[in-house]
């Protein structure tokens, strides 16, 4: 077979449904799902079974960002983490406080000489204190090492919408900014 003047051929590989993979190898403590818009396929296979304690998945381009699939699977606590710098989405007052603290520690307000007091309360410090340098555009930390509060499924959609609006107002192309949902199982 030839396509675009390049020879190629089909390769058959054995596959398993995700549920079968979990049944064979067990449920992991943490699960990262990132299959370019098809994450819901794996997440749907988690419903009705023991859940990984922590899961992260790319927020989808759907209205709810894929949160509904996580709720349907049985997850009840969520964080929305920006993947460019692992900033946690928060409600307005939390975001405002985080921005002020970050400016005091690292930005324009450093001149107030309060950086050493503000720094331990910033998302950046939380990430740096893990002792690992995450590559830009990587998934970053997971589970309890992620910054920000755990949210309910009632609060999380409003934060996603606020972040989408913020990106739109900033003029940043949406494809240059993406978020991951981090989910926490409340099951023992």
- Rg, nearest Å: 19 Å
Strand content: 5-15%
Distance between the termini: 53 Å
Order of helices and strands: EEHEHEHEHHHHE
User: Helix coverage percent of residues?
Assistant: 25-40%
Mean pLDDT: 79
Report the count of strand segments.
6
In the predicted model, the low-confidence regions spanning at least 5 consecutive residues are none
| Lateral strand order in the biggest sheet | 3-4-6-5
Biggest β-sheet description: 4 strands, mixed
Number of helical segments with 4 or more residues: 7
What is the global morphology? globular
Structure description:
A hairpin with a 2-residue loop joins strand 1 and strand 2. The protein is α+β, with helices and mostly antiparallel strands and 188 residues long. The model has no long low-confidence stretch (mean pLDDT 79). It is globular. The strands form 2 sheets. It has a 4-stranded mixed β-sheet with strand order 3-4-6-5. A two-stranded antiparallel sheet has the order 1-2. It has one domain. It has 7 helices and 6 strands; from the N terminus they run E-E-H-E-H-E-H-E-H-H-H-H-E. The termini are far apart. 32% of the residues lie in helices and 13% in strands.
């Amino acid at each position: 077979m030839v396509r675009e003047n390049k020879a190629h051929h089909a390769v058959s590989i054995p596959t398993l449904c995700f549920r079968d993979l979990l049944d064979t190898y067990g449920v992991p403590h943490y699960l990262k799902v990132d299959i370019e818009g098809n994450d819901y396929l794996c997440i749907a296979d988690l419903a009705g079974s023991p859940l990984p304690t922590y899961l992260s998945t790319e927020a989808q381009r759907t209205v709810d960002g894929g949160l509904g699939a996580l709720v349907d699977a049985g997850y009840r606590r969520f964080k929305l983490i920006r993947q460019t710098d692992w900033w946690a989405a928060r409600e307005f007052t939390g975001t405002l406080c985080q921005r002020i603290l970050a400016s005091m520690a690292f930005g324009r307000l450093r001149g107030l000489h309060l950086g050493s007091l503000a720094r331990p309360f910033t998302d950046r410090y939380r990430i740096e204190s893990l002792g690992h340098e995450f590559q830009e555009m990587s998934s970053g930390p997971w589970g309890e090492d992620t910054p920000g509060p755990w949210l309910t499924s009632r609060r999380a959609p409003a934060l996603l919408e606020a972040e989408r609006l913020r990106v739109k107002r900033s003029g940043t192309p949406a494809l240059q900014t993406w978020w991951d949902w981090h989910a926490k199982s409340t099951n023992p």
